[in-house]
Amino acid sequence: MGIHLEKGLLFDRVKKTYRNGVKAVDGLTLNIPKGCVHAFLGPNGAGKTTSLKAALGFISYGGTVSWDGKPVEAMRHDIVFVPEEKRFYEHWTLVETLRICSKLDKRFSLQRAREYFDFFELPMKKRIRGFSLGMKTSLYLSLAFSTEAGFLILDEPTSGLDPIKRDDVLEIIRRQVIDGKTVLYTSHIIPEVERIADTFSILQHGTLVYNGTLDELKERFRVFTFSMEEWGREEAPKGVIVTEQRDQVTVLTDNEQAISAWNKKKECFSEIPTLDTFFQLTIRGKRYV
Questions:
Q1: Cβ distance 29 to 13 under 8 Å?
Q2: Of 32, 88, 150, 249, which has the highest C-beta tally within 10 A?
């Protein structure tokens, strides 16, 4: 299965302002291709969770959100959500959980769920109130991966997992795409995004500040480091993002003229940005417009 740009998840001028006046999402327009892993990045309060709730049809909002060409409200049967807060019916055991899930969703695979429970070493007869955070995360993921839904929304899907299980989950997420599904997930662990995401978006203050692939980012942008004295002699072109720290200045830019000119200077250091560097500079830096 490949990425299909013509369909997928489409946010079209989505806006959401809460009653307290907080503008959580401000005109978000974004197409997440079908058949990919897409990561939402951004600091706390950037609008990620509100955007996820809009994609799930959980909240009222301005604009439209569609999945596979239809309003998300009409496609809930094809969407599965794993929330950041892993709350569950804590008096249940996994035996009871499977019985209820199979009744709620005719396409739910009991065999697959049991296989995932075994894989994550989850006790079938222990009440969920006694589960650790990592065990609850494993439970949620096991149930999500055992459905036939075509679209998975995973909010911090590796929280509480040890490094080995985290690696396992990332591989399972990649397999979902191989099986023809689409995954939208959020994570504060940037190396995870670099490892498995086909595309990613960065949100800040409810607006989209970047959307693309890691290869596109590395092809387009460069990071330059100047001494404070040397930077004082420069005239910052439009579109650069600048951070100042102690006696040096770090500049992120996709301005081709600036890149060409600064690459010739011996007084500054140039490098291709990692996703973590790009994210930090985009969020923390001052943008020249």
A1: yes
A2: 32
CB atoms under 10 Å from CB of 260, counted, come to 9
Q: Which residues pair with 183 in a beta bridge?
A: 37, 152
- Measured distance CA(266)–CA(11) in Å, rounded: 45
Cβ atoms of 24 and 47 within 8 Å: the answer is yes
Which positions ≥6 away from 228 have C-beta within 8 Å? 244, 247, 248, 249
Tokens of 22: 């907080």
CATH of 7-87+142-212, one of 3.40.50.450, 3.40.50.300, 3.40.50.1110, 3.20.20.105: 3.40.50.300
Q: What is the pLDDT of residues 96-147, one digit of tens each?
A: 999 999 998 888 999 999 999 999 999 999 999 999 999 999 999 999 999 9
Domain positions in the chain: 7-87+142-212, 216-288
Q: Are 39 and 197 a contacting pair, CB within 8 Å?
A: yes
Tokens of 17: 């302002």
For 242-253, what is each residue's pLDDT tens digit? 998 888 999 999
Contact of 36 with 177, CB cutoff 8 Å: yes
Q: How far is CA 262 from CA 216, 277, 287, in A?
A: 21, 19, 18
Question: Could you give the CA distance from residue 188 to residue 209 in angstroms, rounded to a whole number?
Answer: 17
Q: pTM for this one? A: 0.89
| Spatial distance between the Cα atoms of 160 and 166, rounded to a whole number of angstroms | 9
